[in-house]
Amino acid sequence: MNVATLLRRAPAPPLAAEGAARVATWRLSPRLLLHRLASGLALVFLVLPVAFLLATSFKSRDEVLSGYFFPLAPTWLNWRSLLSVAPLHLNLLNSLLVALLALFITLAIAVPAVYAVVKLRHGQRLAGWLLSSYLSPPVVALLPLFFVWRQAGLTNSYLGLALVDGLSNVPVAFWLLRGFFKQVPLALDEAAWLEGVGPWKTLWRVNLPLIWPGLTATAIICLILSYNEFLFASVLNSRPDLRTITVAISLFEGERVVNFGQMAAASLLGIAPVYALALWFQKHLIGGLGAAATLEHTRRQP
Prior knowledge:
By secondary structure, this protein is mostly helical. It has a domain at 87-251: MetI-like (MetI-like fold), CATH 1.10.3720. Helices cover 76% and strands 0% of the residues. The chain is globular.
């Protein structure tokens, strides 16, 4: 047997075989192509509004009315005059403060309520009542809340607006956390109860560490909902120094002329904290959600 025959019969190197397998998989996997195409379209759909805002913020008033996507003569005038028109830095701080207070109120109510319904089997009808209250339009409660808040002295205050936003987001937090609490085995709670641990300590020491990924995701969603709220913020807080960023952006619309360039720049400034928050917590959520999925898979195994 000659050398050429031995070379032909010799097995291919592992790296070469792996590369050939990858090429074959890429060529013979239309599902992967379809998945990447759908991901690309979804990415374009999500990035396009932000790109349009960014392009509009560098346009003059005439270029905005012309209808071109990209600015023909980019200008920094909208950004330079932004802070002189409105104190957006103060509006951003107001929005963040109200959102954080509302988040604390939401979680302080929703977390014990979900634990009582899922683990202690109390208040089973509470879930349906919360969902029905969330389905009603917020404008229905606007006028009664305004008079009640004014009598209580809660108008034109951070606490008054945070109470409304926090209570409004309780149904959202309740339904999001309900699935995460159900993933925690009831045997862990029963074992803690047998050792003499009360319900509050069981919630704090047993359940919360296990549902921490879900709690973080719920907190981010509720924080964004409170940050983006406009209706109650425009009515309950009329003082200029208490305006949130959503109300401040709406004021760029004048009686006759709408300054779209400055409004786009203010919108980008307003969404920057939310995007930064989502990107920062994305690293923590991936590992946490993977651990939660592993916990669920392990619990379902016989």
